[in-house]
Amino acid sequence: MDRLSLVLILAVGPTLTGSFLTVVLGLGYYSWPAIAGAILLGLVLTWPVSYVVSRWIKRDDPYFDHTRRKGSLMPDPDAREV
Question: Is residue 53 part of a domain?
Answer without folding.
Answer: yes
